[in-house]
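A reminder before we start the practical. When you read a complex entry, don't treat the lines as separate problems. The point of joint prediction is that each chain is placed relative to the others, so the output describes one connected object in space. Small molecules and nucleic acid strands, if listed, are placed in the same frame. In the example below there are two entries. Take a minute to note the order of the lines before looking further.
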Amino acid sequence: MSVHPTFNSSTRQVPLASLFASALILAACGPSGSAPADPSSIQEASGPVILPMEGLEKTDLKFGFIKLTDMAPLAIAYEKGYFEDEGLYVTLEPQANWKVLLDRVIDGELDGAHMLAGQPLASTIGYGTAANIVTPFSMDLNGNGITVSNDVWDQMKEHIPVDAEGKPEHPIRAEALKPVIDQYKSEGKPFNMGMVFPVSTHNYELRYWLASGGINPGYYSPDNVQGTIQADALLSVTPPPQMPATLEAGTIYGYCVGEPWNQQAVAKGVGVPVITDYEIWKNNPEKVFGLTEAFVTEHPNTTKAITRALIRAAMWLDEDDNANRAEAVEILSRSEYVGADAKVIAASMTGTFEYEKGDVRSVPDFNVFFRYNATYPYYSDAVWYLTQMRRWGQISETHADAWYDETARQVYRPDIYLAAARSLVDDGIAEEADFPWDTDGYREPTSEFIDGLTYDGRSPNAYIDSLPIGLKDGQTVSDQAIQN
Amino acid sequence: MGSIAAKRIEPKAGPVPEAASPEPAGTASKERVFFAINKASKYLDVLALSWVTPILMMAAGDSLSGNLKLLWQRLGIPVISILMFLVLWAGLAPQVKTSLGAIPGPAAVAEQAIVLHKDNVAEQAKAQAFYARLDEVNARLKAAGRGDEIVKRSYTGKPTYYQQIWTSLKTVFFGFFLATLVAAPLGIVMGMSPAMNAAFNPLIQIFKPVSPLAWLPIVTMIVSATVASDSSIPKSFLTSAITVTLCSLWPTLINTALGVSSIDRDLVNVGKVLKLGWYTKVTKLVLPSALPLIFTGMRLSLGVGWMVLIAAEMLAQNPGLGKFVWDEFQNGSSQSLARIIVAVLTIGVIGFLLDRVMYALQSMFTYSANR
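Here is the predicted structure of the whole assembly.
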């Protein structure tokens, strides 16, 4: 029977095609003998093998990433051959920092990149370098932590209730940090904290946590991009690899960052993670895969193929209740990906998280790559970040609810995601039930925040007004103060 | 006097052959050998192999004491000093504890150097597998009648350490070449005309001290704006190379100007007497006499350029040694410090070799000028 792999291959033809292809692969690999040596370089002959889709506009691609564990979908899509299955030949290049990464995507040196959820939004609304960046794929949920220095932890402990076993009760609320900050203030020492980028998820999560404990993290104004107006805690940008060192040096007293930098601090004995962002907002959106709008418009088939490969990678990462995580850790520990020691990466990716040295707790959803519809680009996720940008003054004026919705629709592209998902289901690679086909793009209102407030993406202004510390409807910041 | 002569032994002199007393016929061939070794020693010196000369002389039958002394001075002392440095390093390094672990000693660094080499080998194997897979996919595409989609591709994996070294070398030479192209003619013009000198001097003095990291954002923006996205030369390469140019053109420029302006007055007068044309003057008078200084300048420029390159690469993301160091720092693994030190030593060794190459070129031209 002649096997002509097609797109609408029914589920019966695919196994035959895969047998034929596997035979070819084995035949090709046999005589040379060198190829099968490295397990990671072999394509999985077990899953269905498909020919790349026709009409791919660009097949040699370069993606950028930052060395954080949640770049995993990119690494897995490369190492497991998902990109190659789609006919995409991708070079993954680590970037120096978030600014360089964003600039290189905007000027076309990188075709796409692992991005902070806030970056495409901020670029599109013109905060920072203005450019139209879109995302068809959310890379993960959760994955960050807030770490404080040993001294600050010792002082915080006095204010943290202990549970039955004598261990600090989790989640640790920022109320425990407030007296420490007041103490520092009374001694005239500014309480400096680090985060990774002005529009990073880390910045907003840290601010959310601080504000929930009554600590003012500072406002931005059109003239003041430091974000320290009226601040009790001064937040500034520190590159992730330098965070443990600056924490040790006392330049900052705490930071919010992704992994492996929180577990790294514990491993080196320079700090204590106090809370993960899973506890601040259960299953919050974290990184997205960003591309320029121009790229997506000129290369629609390529974008769809990229999304397909990334969805497959995300599925693999969460498959069988995280059964593949150990292998993922090994891949990420290679120097070309995250490069940290495998032990440190495994401390957060395999179902646990270490807080105080020796205090290892079960946090199976510290990194979520596919379940809970993690990869669907929900408009409500975009709107949350926009509300936080407004809350702290990066968006300087009040906007109608419709503006939030429109901006989210400009940046988040669930249409591309669903088209890719549909084609994966048709090819028999994914299950129909795994994707939210019928959603309008907004998750249900949720109260799973550390302070119990409810977030409904359809009413951003009402949400903004409900937040304790932050700009309310009609307020602006100028002359170092809030104007009504 | 004999001992002074022996101490002052430089390529031309060589140890004084003991031909004072009449010798049998074998002396003549011995002297020829000594003469040949002396000639060779000029080149050996340039290649930093000056310690080979005494060994050759001893092998050819020259006196042991004078040559052993030379050997000690040229090989023994440096080797002992390097060994002492290694011992000191191995002893002191573990005392310094950083958040990335203690500073690695020579053993750990050597181990990582071997690991890097092995990575290179493993990457070659991966590349082979990649091409095998590519061939297989192309065969299937052809079979499905989509042969026109087949495109020549190169391996998409990470660059190996050796490839990164090569990228750095390419970048530095490109930047250096651009710098020489700009600086040499400008220097000649400035040297020949005091008016031009006065015109350019203030600008040079102001731009000379600017660090590469200050130039980088400006160069990045200009390259982004002017170079097309799909050009075959990557933007990061251009940004790094141009930053190298901007920082390394000053030594060449200044030395060329100096060299040209300090030509022997007599030669200038000869030119006037013979009413030499401008072009002949430059090529026959100015350049030959200024060449030593021009080469000195170029040698300094290459040295500066190599230093600047590493910094530029870190931020411009050119996939060379600078990026290697920055990526290792971001990795923060227990081997990162050792790998960074391997890179530091590599950078040093390559810088030394580049310097030697330029010195060799320089001495070729210097000798010819002093004929």
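Discuss with your neighbour: Confidence is low (pLDDT under 50) at residues 1-6 of chain B. What might explain this?
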